[in-house]
Amino acid sequence: MSGSGLGRILIVDDEQTVRDVLAEYFTEQGYAVATAESGRDALKVLESFRPDLVLLDIRMPGIDGVETLRRLREVAPAVSVIMVTANEDVALARDTLKIGALDYVSKPFDFAYLEQSVMAGLVNAGARRAGRAATQDPVPALAQVTFRAVRGMEIAARGSTGVRLEDATLRVAREAAAGHTEAARAALAEVDLLLAVAADLGDLTGADLAQVQGAMTAAREALGG
After folding, report:
1. What is the CATH number of domain 135-225?
2. How large is the C-alpha radius of gyration of the chain?
3. What is 90-158 written as a DSSP string?
4. What CATH architecture applies to the domain 1-130?
5. Could you report the per-residue pLDDT of 116-175, keeping only the tens digit for each?
6. Is the pTM of this model over 0.90?
7. What's the pLDDT tens digit per position in 55-64?
8. What is the Cα–Cα distance from 222 to 225, expressed in whole angstroms?
């Protein structure tokens, strides 16, 4: 266990090299970090470390990542969980979003994207620590809904409009959390524009589009826009 400040991250992976790389990276960024080599160990560490966010490998011997996620949701429903997966398990990773994972990331890691996802998870954790469930707090909820919608995009769309939508919604959450209401409104206007572009291009459609639009409306009202 090490680090302090920005948030508390529990890394769960049966490969020591993965644990070491992730622990070193996030410790250097200023996070408090603990590690566990199995789902069973993770549930034990959870009691003493009390993380804000868990990076959880899907494929592990014994209690795998999916079952560990189910148990985490029962004993620590406020903790954000990001699944870690190999490319061949992306379909399984998407399914974990339905049982409570916030996001998923693939190995080898894109560290810029990984930290972006972690920060979105910590925004939600921070809202819960303040006594506001993410589903009841419109600004962090917008980030969460957008991240889930972008995960369902086609790869090409995700790499263009999807990434920009995530960046903009995360900026809304950061500015709002810092009390910078005007800056949050400006970022929200960018989300609105990007959402219109994604809809026109067919990158985001149906229920996913409707959910993000609904979250946008709620966030705008919360910011007084």
Report:
1. 1.20.1440.60
2. 17
3. HHHHHHHGGGT--EEEESSP-HHHHHHHHHHHHHHHHHHHTT--TTTSHHHHHHHHHHHHHHTS-HHHI
4. 3-Layer(aba) Sandwich (3.40)
5. 788 777 766 665 555 554 445 787 778 778 877 887 888 888 888 988 898 888 888 778
6. no
7. 999 999 989 9
8. 8
